[in-house]
Amino acid sequence: MTQDIQSLRTQIANEVKSASNLKALDDVRVSVLGKKGRITALMKTLGAMSQEERQTKGRDINILKDEIADLIKHQENALKKQEMDARLSSETLDITLSPRQDYMGHIHPISQTIEELTVIFAAMGFHVAEGPDIEDDYHNFTALNFPPGHPAREMQDTFFLPETQDEEGEYAKKLLRTHTSSVQIRHMENNKPPHKIICFGRTYRSDYDLTHTPMFHQMEALMIDEKTNMGHLKGCIMDFVRAFFEIEDLPVRFRPSFFPFVEPGAEIDIGCSRKDGGLKIGAGDDWLEIGGSGMVHPNVLKNCGLDPEKYQGFAFGMGIERMAMLKYGIPDLRTFFESDLRWLRHYGFNPLERPNSASGVKS
Predict the structure, then answer these.
(1) Structure pTM?
(2) What are the backbone angles phi and psi of residue 166, rounded to the nearest 5°?
(3) pLDDT recorded at residue 363
């Protein structure tokens, strides 16, 4: 019996090593370990043996079974690697081929607009600052000179979160920021002047219609030093909107307006034409409001630890979706957030052609 097992081991080992593909190897496995296999047949002979002989022969057969199973597994791994190597050597992919246009990903208009704004303001010496979406009442309202009882503090306009305890055990009112102006406050608190930043981000207000959504994006710019004045504000905005809309003689005007965090404040209007019921940006007989601006209020400077007798500067901001809608002719704000691939293919941008300081902003 021992000689038969040894002979069977040698025979099966040769068959396994001779298997040149996975199909042949599986045939060997079935002929050896299957229900009618040779090792299975040996196991069936144990019933006719004495108990002492059954223990000895059974151990030898189990050892043989394990050895053959390991040998088959090893050969299987070798054959799989061999097949993979053969596929890798025969299959090729020409990565220089242009992808099909209908399968190419597109840059969302919001991302495109943010990149364009970044390029424009980087050329002016601004750098990007960031802040949290979840703010406290102080950074979102109080530090920006919003008085108690201001309508923006009311629940119908602002998404307030449940009050939470701070490290000192006091309750703090949290909310989803209603503007990116809170980023300016945090930047001035944590950095020494002069300040020259631009910030982008999501903002949240309780509103939803053709031109409003509960979540939208804003951009704001801030410049603080000892000499900046209203003339610098006007020049910066004029250069910015003319670069963004790519109209060298784009008319720009500033209308006096009130914002709690600036004094004086001004609405920003650009020239347009509404002839035949359309809208065309540029020289025309009408004006279109695009944002707000002004000189930073002395109270805001004080709240950030700056001496308003020494420092002054300007701030302005506007909605990113609105800028994209005006430049690229997108009629409905809500479609920005509907995740419609057809819409994105129509209004999206080629990811291989990004705005940069070398080639400039592209429409």
Answers:
(1) 0.67
(2) -90, -170
(3) 46
